[in-house]
C-alpha cells in the first residue's frame, strides 16, 4: 500500500486545508487530459490518497495502520503498521479501542467533489480587450430532483437496522491467539450508518447526476496564450450533493491574420511602393481600435518601423495601460519600368549610388531622406 502522505507530498501533521491544496496541485499535475493517458494510474493514486486523508475517520484508521477501504485486511503493508503480522491490528484493537478501528464512526454521505478541467480558444482581439467565452463541460452536477439528498420526495435517510447507526459491525475472526472480535464497515449501509429507503430515481441515491452544461468564462484583458483560469465551485459536485470542486480553464489564443503578439505589443507589416519610401506618405490601416493613420517617413528604409503608442495589448498588472502597435515597413521595388522611369532611375543611380559600400554588422546606413539637394531633389520632383 502506498504512503498517501508521500503521494500528496505533505507531512503527516498536515491540516485539512494543506491536504486539499496538495490534492489540487497533484491532480492538475497528473490529470490524464494534461499530463497524458500514461499518468492515469498516478492520477487514480492521487485521488485515492485524497479520499482517505480528507476523511477524518478514514485518516485515523490509516494512521493507525488499518486500510480504511478494507479493515479486514489488518495492518499489513501500511506505513508504520504491523507488516506481515496478519490480524494483529484487530487483536490490539480489542485491548486499546479506537486506535485500531474498534470505534470508528460512520462515513458521511456528503463528500467534496473533484476539480474539473476544460479548455477554450479565443481570438487575439478578445485577448487584447478581454471578453466572455462559453465552455461546455460534462461532469457531475447536483441532482435537481432530490436537491442532493439522494432520497425521493423529501424523505430522509433512516438509521441502519443492521449497525444501528454505527457504520460498522462486529465480526469474529480467527487469529493465532484464537477467535477475536473485530469491526468492519456495515454492508447494509456501506458504512454510512443510515439507509435511504426511497432513493431518488434520478440519481439512485447519490445526490448527483452526470450532466453537460455551459459555463461562462470571463476572459481578462491582456491574457496570454496557454494561460489557466480558475472558477471556484464550478467543478464536480461531490457524492451526496457535496461541495463542488473548482473548474480550471486552459485558454488558447488563436493566430491572427493581420497581427502577431510580442508581450504586450502587437506587430503588423505594411507594404509600400518605393516612391512612398522615398517621399514619405500617410496610409490608413485597420486596427483593433478602428482605422488608424500610419505616417511613412521620407527616406524610409526596408524593415524600418513606425510605432503607434497605446494600441497594443492591455497590461494585466497595470490597469488602463496598453502596449504599442509596431508597423514594419516593407518597400516594394518595381519589376517593370517604362523608358522614362528607367532613365530617371539610371540617372539617380549614376549620381547617387556611387557611395554604396559594405556595411559592418550591427551598423545602419544613413537614411535616404538625409540627403538634400542634388539629384535626390530632382527625383523627388519627378516622382511627385
UniProtKB/TrEMBL annotation:
PROSITE patterns: DNAJ_1 (PS00636), DNAJ_2 (PS50076), ZF_CR (PS51188). Residues 348-370 are annotated as: Disordered. Its cofactor is Zn(2+). CXXCXGXG motif repeats lie at residues 143-150, 160-167, 186-193, 200-207. SUPFAM superfamilies: Chaperone J-domain, DnaJ/Hsp40 cysteine-rich domain, HSP40/DnaJ peptide-binding domain. Keywords: Chaperone, Cytoplasm, DNA replication, Metal-binding, Oxidoreductase, Repeat, Stress response, Zinc, Zinc-finger. Residues 3-66 form the J domain. Gene3D superfamilies: DnaJ domain, Heat shock protein DnaJ, cysteine-rich domain, Urease metallochaperone UreE, N-terminal domain. Binds 2 Zn(2+) ions per monomer. Its main location: cytoplasm. A zinc finger (CR-type) spans 130-212. It holds the Pfam family DnaJ_CXXCXGXG. Zn(2+) 1 binds at residues 143, 146, 200, 203. PANTHER family: CHAPERONE PROTEIN DNAJ (PTHR43096:SF48), DNAJ HOMOLOG 1, MITOCHONDRIAL-RELATED (PTHR43096). Belongs to the DnaJ family. Participates actively in the response to hyperosmotic and heat shock by preventing the aggregation of stress-denatured proteins and by disaggregating proteins, also in an autonomous, DnaK-independent fashion. Unfolded proteins bind initially to DnaJ; upon interaction with the DnaJ-bound protein, DnaK hydrolyzes its bound ATP, resulting in the formation of a stable complex. GrpE releases ADP from DnaK; ATP binding to DnaK triggers the release of the substrate protein, thus completing the reaction cycle. The J domain is necessary and sufficient to stimulate DnaK ATPase activity. Zinc center 1 plays an important role in the autonomous, DnaK-independent chaperone activity of DnaJ. Zinc center 2 is essential for interaction with DnaK and for DnaJ activity. NCBIfam families: DnaJ_bact, PRK10767.1. This is Chaperone protein DnaJ. It comes from Bifidobacterium amazonense. The gene is dnaJ.
